[in-house]
Amino acid sequence: MKQGILFDLDGTLWDSSEEVAISWSEALQKYSDIKMEITTEMIQGVMGKSMTDIADIFFAGHDLEKRRKLLEHCCEEENNYILSHGGKLLEGLEETLQTLREQGYFLYIVSNCQVGYIEAFLQYHGLGQYFDDFESFGGTGRDKGYNIRLVVKRNQLNQAFYVGDTQGDYLAATKAGIPFVHAKTGYGAVEAQVPSIQKLPELPKMAEKMFAEMKNMPAT
Hey, which of 69, 87, 108, 127 has its CA 20 to 30 A from 102? Predict the structure, then answer.
């Protein structure tokens, strides 16, 4: 029986909104025709959306080609900044991950970010040892529901659930056909009656309950 826990990243495992805002603002300073500053609040307001959706929101006044060019540059600067500055880990993260591994669970990350962002998170904070696989919107060009199911299938999980902080995370888990746990540590509310945790150290006990109640889920 292979049991896996899949995590959203932003708002669930860490908060990098301030660092992302700084990196995007610095990136945009290189464009004389862009007169805007990206704030932490702006970043928090779009967390969970795909990178292309974020670009369409922030750069709505520009044509598609320009929006994609700006996005590419901002994401490159963001990855570099995160790699050298990190973000703010949520309280009890590493201890929770260690406990979950000791319980025998396999751990994964599925995020709507660009390629390089999850890698920067893992590298800067030295957390790669806890995770067995990850996937992103940038890696596949597909939505989070698809990517959750992809990770479940390629890792041949018999049972799995997804931990996230927004309604979009809940909908993605539902689309992927696996249960959802709401991490009330992050950016959003969930309009459904679902299991929840107030802080990460509650997750090991919640995981025991989730898997005890779960029927075998074929990895197809």
Answer: 87
pLDDT, block means (10 residues), the chain with 220 residues: 96 95 93 86 87 90 91 94 96 98 98 96 97 97 97 97 95 96 88 95 97 67
Contact status, residue 56 vs residue 67, Cβ threshold 8 Å: yes
Query: What are the start-end ranges of the E strands in the chain?
Result: 3-7, 14-15, 88-89, 106-111, 133-136, 159-164, 180-183, 196-197
What phi, psi does 160 have (nearest 5°)? -160, 155
- Residue labelled with tokens 């959706």: 53
* Greatest CA separation for the chain: 57
Residues β-bridged to residue 6: 108, 162
Nearest to 162 by CA among 88, 109, 199: 109
Q: Which amino acid is at 34?
A: I
Report d(CA 15, CA 135) in Å as an integer: 19
Answer whether 0.90 is exceeded by the pTM: yes
